[in-house]
């Protein structure tokens, strides 16, 4: 049996699991949507994105 994890914030099923930063006061896993939302809330102005092209 596979245990399905639920997002701590939206309670949605987690497809890609993200762990909250200790400073976020969120105890539990997050889905990608809430994770990016939290990133934006806590680090406004910083663009967190995966970009392999560093030109
Ligand atoms: Zn979520």
Can you characterise this structure?
The chain has one helix and two strands, in the order ββα. The chain has 55 residues and is an alpha+beta fold. The chain has one domain (1-55). The mean pLDDT is 85. The structure holds zinc ion (ZN).
Share in helix? 10-25%
Number of helices: 1
Unique bound compounds: zinc ion
Structural class: alpha+beta
Main sheet makeup: 2 strands, antiparallel
Domain module tally: 1
What is the number of beta strands? Answer: 2
Average residue-wise pLDDT:
85
Sheet with the most strands: spatial strand order: 1-2
What overall geometry do the principal axes of the alpha carbons give?
Answer: elongated
> Beta-strand level of the residues, as a percent range?
5-15%
Rg, nearest Å? 13 Å
Question: What are the segments in which pLDDT stays under 50 over at least 5 consecutive residues?
Answer: none
Question: SSE string, helix = H, strand = E?
Answer: EEH
What gap, in angstroms, lies between the N and C termini? 46 Å
């Amino acid at each position: 049996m596979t245990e399905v994890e639920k997002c701590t914030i939206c309670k949605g099923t987690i497809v890609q699991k993200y762990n909250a930063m200790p400073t976020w006061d969120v105890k539990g896993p997050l889905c990608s949507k809430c994770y990016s939302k939290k990133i934006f809330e806590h680090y406004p102005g910083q663009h967190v994105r995966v970009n392999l092209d560093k030109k």
